Fold this sequence. Notes:
This protein is an alpha/beta fold. 30% of the residues lie in helices and 33% in strands. The chain contains six helices and eight strands.
Amino acid sequence: xxxxxxxxICGNNINFFVQRVKKLFVCDMFLQFDKVRRKDIPAKxxxxxxxxxxxxxxxxxLWELMDRLDDHDVQTGAERCHRMIKPGGMxxxxxxxxxxxxxGVCSFVVEExxxxxxxxxxxxxxxxxxxxxxDIIAMLAPFIQLRxxxxxxxxREFLFQRR
Length: 163
């Protein structure tokens, strides 16, 4: 199994997944988008970092990336992910809900027992684009939504599969 983690980069997550997948790829798109924002260059420069061949991955972890991008970049991201993931492959998206505005960018740190801990990434200055669950599902229309969860703390998790 080959897995792509689009960041933010987290040592705990790398250690966790490296023990469970055949090959792990990490590309911190949060830092890429923060860099293009700070330097006022086109967002397409950030997307150049996701230049993996078609159907390379069995799974992609998007974390809260889609809530940090405008609608155009969400569409670009969905298309790139769809191209990079194998048929039947899975895409996981986490969303901190209303916590995004107060916390800024977060790392979802995976710990033993598959528990998630939140770590603030205050050095990344991406704004939040709050979206309803139905909007997130619509933006990822190239995928089939398999499951979604809303946790007691307001966090949302989505599981999508490539058609």
